[in-house]
Amino acid sequence: MPDDAHPMGDPPVEMVPEYWPSACSDTPRPARTIHGLFALPGFLLLWIVPKRIGASLAASGWRAAIVAHVLAMALGGGLILWAEMYNWSSLSASFWAPSWAPNVNRPIVSIGQLPWTDCVRGPFAAWALWAHESGIGAVGFARVLLIVLGVEACAVLVAVGIMPWAAAGEDVLRLFGRCLRLTWWSTTLMIPLGIAWLMHPVIRPILGLPPEWHPFDYIALSGIGLLWLSILLRSTRRYAGPAEGPAWTPRTPRCESCGYRISHPPHAGNCPECGRPVVDSLPEHRSPPAFGEANEFINGVRAYGATLHQVVFEPRFFSHLAIHTAHRRARTFFLLTCLINSLLVFVATFGFEGRIPPKQAILLQVVADAVTAASVCFGIQMLLGGLLAALISAVSRRPMQSAGVMVFYAQSTLLMWGVGVAALPWAGYRSSAWLDRYPTNIAAASGAVIVMAIALTPFVLGTYGTLRALRRAVRDTRYANA
Question: How many Cβ atoms are within 10 Å of 83's Cβ, its own excluded?
């Protein structure tokens, strides 16, 4: 008998199964649910332990989330309006005419003269007073209605934007409901913001701040915005619903070139439709990138650079990317990208405004502008990435979790925008210095144009790279089996 012959005859032929196993085999751990309006006090714990309490609040139902949102917006917004209508110096309140009603004269009233019932009704009465002074009749009603609809539209937009971040494998409607409820719950942060806004005239003298707006106020508002975003995203980290959705559904084997069902053919065969080898469509053909498998911090830093290099310079990166697993690592990868871009924006803003003479720019004002710009950049990047993944999921009819993995890696090329933002202020300052020194010199003008063109190059390269990476990602992961 030949040495290479099988002792029991020909070896068994490996066949493609009827279905691939589901991407997630674990059953979500149920959360402790508080039904009805008894869940309302839970917003206090949401600010402290959002990851632990978020799943419980999301499972408490729509009624509690709606009531919490309405009360938070009414009470928090009313406190802000009340603060704008009163002057709370030394814990005494005096009516004064706000900027939107300069011709209104109000009597001076001490807060000590108001009964406690009026203090409780004060924020809600402020809304009625504001609505009345905004306009009488249909015009005022339409203005208030547009503001309310705009706020709710923003809440829905934020809920859609965080869906790829919060995706745990459930179906889209259940995911959207969970994100919208948690977005409504997160708006309860308006209550402490309103209290701080109302009491800030009392606190400012203690901190040594002037009565007018100060750079410290912009830094504080930026910090509150980042805190709100952090609470919202951390509250979505855990899913405690039923094990129903794409992550728990067995997947049909398909040819990754044409989408033809390849159940039961041998591994050594070819796709009957396009002729692609079946082995090229097996799940083993795909794997997470280097960052998706790195655990330690040092290895994670190296893996981030290696993965970024693969996304930018390897055309076949998405052909070998596993998009049904390692969603959390992909989310962390994009989070690091947003942080690096925001840091570059901070450095660029600080460096540009720091060149202004000291008499015209105060250091704290420069820091406030830099922090505000970096915070806005961070929030826009995260929301843009989420909305783009949600759009691709809806158009290409793929699971939200898979679309998130794909977009989180593809959008890393936007780092070029951060490089451009960091280089643009320096280029503008250098060009203006040349033109001021040599206003009629053609060489100086040409040099300024060249320097500005070089500074704008990263924006062009970043946009082109992102569009190119997204096109490759959509094409190469359309029928991914892993």
Answer: 21
For 337, 364, 442, 452, the CA distances from 447, given in Å and listed in that order, are 32, 34, 8, 9
Cα first-last separation, the chain: 41
CA distance 215 to 217: 5
The percent of the chain in helix, strand and coil, each rounded to the nearest 5, is 65, 5, 30
- Stated as kind and residue range, the H or E segment containing 423 is helix 415-437
Dump the DSSP string for 43-107.
Answer: HHHHHH-HHHHHHHHHTT-HHHHHHHHHHHHHHHHHHHHHHHHB--BTTB--B---TT-TT----
Tokens of 286: 């795909």
Is 368 in contact with 218 (CB distance < 8 Å)?
yes
Q: Are 337 and 307 in contact (CB under 8 A)?
A: no
Residue 155 CB neighbour total at 10 angstroms: 17
Chain segment 287-324, per-residue pLDDT in tens = 888 887 777 666 778 888 889 888 888 888 998 898 88
Enter the DSSP assignment of 165: H
The size of the chain, in residues, is: 482
Q: What single string gives the DSSP state of each residue in 340-392? A: HHHHHHHHHHHHHHTTS-TTT--HHHHHHHHHHHHHHHHHHHHHHHHHHHHHH
From CA 13, how far away is CA 442, in angstroms rounded?
76
DSSP at 252 = P
Structure tokens at 333: 């990868």
Token representation of residue 339 = 């942080």
C-alpha neighbours within 13 Å on the C-beta side of residue 169: 26
Per-residue DSSP letters for 31-58? P----GGGGTTHHHHHHH-HHHHHHHHH
Q: Is the dihedral of CA 207, 49, 68, 232 positive or negative?
A: positive
Alpha-carbon gap, residue 449 to 434, rounded angstroms = 11
Other CB atoms within 10 Å distance of the CB of residue 202: 13
Tell me if 481 sits within 8 A of 325, measured CB to CB: no
Quick one: pLDDT band at residue 110, thresholds 50, 70, 90? very low
Q: Which residue has the tokens 């066949």?
A: 15
Instruction: Answer for the pair 65, 181: CB distance below 8 angstroms, yes or no.
Output: yes
pTM above threshold 0.70: yes
Question: What DSSP state is assigned to residue 89?
Answer: B
Question: Rounded distance, CA 379 to CA 270, Å?
Answer: 47
